Amino acid sequence: MNIIRFPHPDLEDEGMADTGGDFEHTVAVEAISTHMEFHMKANPNGISNKRRWAGRILSGFATLFFLVDGGMKLFKPPVVVQATVGQFGYPESTIVGIGIALLVPTVLYVIPRTSILGAILLTGYLGGAVASNVRIVMPLFNILFPVVLAALAWGGLWLRDQRLEQLLPLASEH
After folding, report:
1. What is the pLDDT of residue 3?
2. Which residue ranges make up each domain of the chain?
3. How far, CA to CA in Å, does 108 sit from each of 46, 52, 92, 102?
4. Long-range contacts: 117-121, Cβ < 8 Å, 24+?
5. Within its chain, how far is the Cα of 80 from the centroid?
6. pTM exceeding the 0.85 threshold for the entire prediction
7. Contacts of 29 (CB under 8 A, 6+ apart)
8. Could you give the CA distance from residue 82 to residue 89 in angstroms, rounded to a whole number?
9. Nearest C-alpha neighbor of 120 from the set 108, 130, 112
10. pLDDT tier at 26, thresholds 50, 70, 90
11. Residue 26 CA to chain centroid, in angstroms?
């Protein structure tokens, strides 16, 4: 067992001083490391449960929208065909490809190991959605909605993934 010794002023008052005048308090490192291992198993990334759940909820809202939107493009109900062809001017043959282009990054986003890559690809997709809405002069809500979805996706990922927090810290450390 490793032992750490450090001065402890309370020991002087209790008459427990060493003959050399140094006041030492012994702490067993094993007990501390066991405590830390317990918390690391419960919280492997060092992120609190509240923060992790907040991230999951934000990511869940964005993911749910992406899955529904991409799934609808695969099944091509009349409302999707009308919006894609009639409003946006894309050929009907592109609808399934657009749906796949949304679903693949969404799946990558949901998998923890590839979530950052998924978020990057989703950001590209959503940038295309903004450009499409600007091109046909849609109302401001329609233009900003993909931006809000991207903020939800990235915010949720930042809250639940410590790797991203280390890459993009919101506060400086000094």
Report:
1. 54
2. 3-42, 49-167
3. 23, 19, 26, 10
4. 119/153, 119/154, 119/157
5. 30
6. no
7. 1, 2, 3, 4
8. 9
9. 108
10. very low
11. 41
